[in-house]
Backbone:
C-alpha cells in the first residue's frame, strides 16, 4: 500500500513539474526557465525537483513530448529511406516527426529558439544524432562502420537540428510535409551515407 502511495506521489510531482515547464515555456520562453522558477510555478521545493531530475535539461528530455518524438523517429530505417520508391516525396517517419512537432509547436518552438542555452542545443543535437547513429550502425556492413564515430553523430545531429530550428525561426512557413520532403532529400544525398564508397 505504501508503495502505491509513493508511486502516486512520484506521478503527481512529475506531472506538476511538466505542467510548470509548459506554462513557463509558453509565458516566458526558454529564457525564463530555471529550476527556481519551475519549483515556484509547480509549488514544490528544490529537493523534490532534484529527487526526480539531475537538472532542467534532464526534465526536458524526459517530457512526454521529447519521448514521443523519439519514438516517432524510432522506425526510421535509413536503408529503407534510401530505397523509398517515391524519389520526390518524403519518407513517412520523417513526415510524422514534423507533423508531431507542428502539432505541439508551442513546446518545440521554445526549445529550438535561438535564445535556448547552448547546453540544451547540444543535448537535443546529440539525442537526434545518436538516434540516427544507432540506426546507421544496425544497417551498415562492417566495412563502413569506421565512418560512424562521434563526428557522424555531430554531423547528423547538427544538420537535422539546424533544419528544425530554421523551420521554427521562419514560423513554420512551409507545411510539415514539405520540410520532411527536403530533409529526406538531404539525407539521401549525404556523402557519409553513400554505400558505393
Residues:
Amino acid at each position: 500500500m505504501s508503495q502505491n502511495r509513493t508511486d502516486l506521489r512520484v506521478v503527481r510531482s512529475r506531472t506538476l513539474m511538466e505542467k510548470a515547464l509548459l506554462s513557463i515555456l509558453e509565458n516566458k520562453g526558454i529564457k525564463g526557465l530555471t529550476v527556481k522558477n519551475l519549483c515556484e510555478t509547480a509549488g514544490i521545493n528544490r529537493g523534490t525537483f532534484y529527487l526526480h531530475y539531475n537538472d532542467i535539461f534532464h526534465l526536458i528530455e524526459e517530457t512526454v513530448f521529447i519521448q514521443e518524438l523519439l519514438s516517432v523517429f524510432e522506425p526510421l530505417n535509413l536503408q529503407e529511406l534510401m530505397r523509398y520508391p517515391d524519389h520526390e516525396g518524403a519518407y513517412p517517419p520523417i513526415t510524422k516527426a514534423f507533423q508531431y512537432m507542428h502539432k505541439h509547436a508551442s513546446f518545440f518552438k521554445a526549445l529550438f529558439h535561438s535564445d535556448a542555452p547552448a547546453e540544451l542545443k547540444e543535448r537535443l543535437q546529440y539525442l537526434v544524432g545518436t538516434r540516427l547513429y544507432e540506426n546507421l550502425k544496425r544497417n551498415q556492413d562492417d566495412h563502413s562502420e569506421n565512418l560512424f564515430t562521434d563526428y557522424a553523430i555531430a554531423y547528423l545531429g547538427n544538420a537535422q537540428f539546424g533544419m528544425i530550428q530554421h523551420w521554427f525561426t521562419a514560423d513554420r512557413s512551409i507545411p510539415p510535409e514539405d520540410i520532411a520532403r527536403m530533409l529526406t532529400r538531404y539525407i539521401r544525398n549525404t556523402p557519409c551515407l553513400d554505400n558505393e564508397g
About this structure: Residues 2-27 form the longest helix (26 residues). The two ends are 61 Å apart (CA to CA).
